[in-house]
Amino acid sequence: MKFDMGTQTLQSLSRQSQGSSTDLGTLIQQLVSAAEPLEGRFNGQGKAAFDAFKARSDEIAHALNSALSAILGGQTGMEQAFGAGDQESTDNATQAMGSANFDAARFTAR
Fold first, then answer.
1. 18 with 79: CB under 8 angstroms?
2. Is residue 98 part of a domain?
3. pLDDT tens-digit map of 21-45
4. Which of 16, 63, 85, 97 sits at a 20 to 30 Å CA gap from 110?
5. How many domains does the chain have?
6. Which domain covers residue 44, as residue numbers?
7. What parts of the chain have a pLDDT lower than 70?
8. Does 3 map to a domain?
């Protein structure tokens, strides 16, 4: 099995995730803003349900932002690990080539 990933793949993924995080936060704010005109129009259980909705919206927004932040942190860590692994692989290959005796591998008669 071969695993081949371009050098910009994780950076692109991080940018897309960051954009999604911003979009999601904006959508949740829009949802809460759209519900604001309804505030004060309910009494009793309706008011309690509306207040619970509004309180949960803030909680959900915070939880989603925290989760996306953790995902972005993981993507950053993966990018650093893949970059370090790529550099280590290059260094190992360069070191191995430096110590190889290429003259001994010639099959031509002298």
1. no
2. no
3. 667 777 877 888 888 888 888 889 9
4. 97
5. 1
6. 30-79
7. 1-7, 21-22, 105, 108-110
8. no
